[in-house]
Amino acid sequence: MSASSLAELKPMLIGDQWVAREDDALESINPATGAVNYRVSVADAALVDRAVATARAAAASKAWRDMLPHARAQVLGRISDGIRAHSDELARLQMIENGKVWSECRAQVASAAATYRYYAAVCETLGAEVTPSRGDYLSMTAYEPYGVVAAITPWNSPMTMEAQKIAPALAAGNAVVLKPSEITPAVGLAVARIALEAGLPPGILNVLPGTGAGTGKALIHHPDVRMISFTGGTITGRNIAAVAAQRLIPVALELGGKSPHIIFGDANLQAAVDGVVDGIFEGSGQSCVAGSRLFVQRNVLEQVVEMLVARANSIRVDLPDAEGAQMGPVAGFRHRERIESLVASARQEKGEILAGGRRPDGDRFAQGSFYLPTVIAGLSNQATAVREEIFGPVVCVLPFDDEDDLVAQANDTVFGLASGVWTANYQRAWRVARALEAGVVWINTYKQLSIATPFGGFKESGIGREKGVTGVRLYQQSKGIYWSMNPANLPE
Ligand code: NAD
């Protein structure tokens, strides 16, 4: 028997049952060391069916359906408290699965706790409408849950991505079946345990680890799943949307990006370069909003590139739990190979690698999937590395001459998730912000995110908006109710 098959086998959660399954078990690998963390039970089609039936019954139960908003809000508040109380455990689970540095994992746990707290408040204060009557009747708009929501999530930030779906879906009155990424299944399982301890009725949150092709596919095709909320790559999102279209169920999609980060010549260059560095190298660039295309006005290009290269070379790449580590490994070995092949394409297309472009030296990094912060210049806006989402610590620098040239280049992409503009000219900031085809524009800052502000992509970066008060409406359908006021319609 191999060492990995002796590793702990984590069960999945269906209702209040922790179900262990040896067949097809996933191996969770620590990307910093290559070691097996544990194995994780995988849901086959029969277990998907059992979980959806459990969720459906729980969603329809009086315990959940008739729970008053303030009571539901209390449950969400207790989940938030439970997440905070288990901060170290949750941060560690994310760190050993996706390799993000400890400080970032801790910050994401705090953000997830805040998300549950926020949707507790939304749940408690959410209203419905009495619409102006156009006759002898009272007309109302009520909002009702879909029933069973399938939440499917990626590996880069399971802590926050899963909270962003589960908290509003529960506030809206649904039951959720979560299919976390096969690379990061443990965070979702731990939060579900915390939710049960917080008094969430069993069956309202079920967690089914597994692959996309197996568990994910079975889940989205299940006839009792009435809504799909997906975050992940654009190709996967397109496939899931096609299934949702066939099934005529709603789908929310948070997809990939290739976000333009823009520096005009009049900007505070020091602050701008700091923003660029955080915007691309935080989380080893594995962020959907990573500012991976850097557009710099030609008159400051040389200066910005020099500052950027110096900063990239000074980033402390280290084991994610090492004191002062700023960048850990990328999330896996296959993922690193993909990053390497895109950097190789940049070399072939006459790009100049100004920093990084390789794995770090030294025994400390030998077993992990590390890759250095990388700066590439000299590519055209049509180059493969400029057009494709790399999802790694790689920024491509491109010059521009004026505002029109900039807007045309920045918008010349299939993606439209995020963008950033650095300039001292507030009129220009406004014009460019309005002209960029992106769901988020940061002005003289980057990657600042708030749970209170709706978030989502233009173009192939997604459909629908998560977060904010309106984020709860993603998980509800409205119902018009007409109530006659005509006494003649009542019995004598
Ligand atoms: P992915 O698309 O490969 O996988 C995402 C999830 O979908 C995983 O849980 C996977 O198992 C599942 N899946 C795959 N195929 C499926 C299928 N046919 N049916 C059902 N489920 C299926 O993405 P990833 O590699 O895990 O994550 C990286 C991607 O996520 C990047 O493109 C990134 O930009 C994107 N992302 C977007 C946002 C956003 O908010 N817009 C946030 C984070 C990540």
From TrEMBL:
InterPro entries: Ald_DH/histidinol_DH, Ald_DH_C, Ald_DH_CS_GLU, Ald_DH_N, Aldehyde_DH_dom. The keyword Oxidoreductase applies. Pfam families: Aldedh. The active site is at E254. One of its GO terms (molecular function) is oxidoreductase activity, acting on the aldehyde or oxo group of donors, NAD or NADP as acceptor. The keyword Oxidoreductase applies. SUPFAM superfamilies: ALDH-like. Residues 18-479 form the Aldehyde dehydrogenase domain. Gene3D superfamilies: Aldehyde Dehydrogenase, Chain A, domain 1, Aldehyde Dehydrogenase, Chain A, domain 2. Keywords: Oxidoreductase. PANTHER family: ALDEHYDE DEHYDROGENASE-RELATED. Belongs to the aldehyde dehydrogenase family. This is Betaine-aldehyde dehydrogenase.
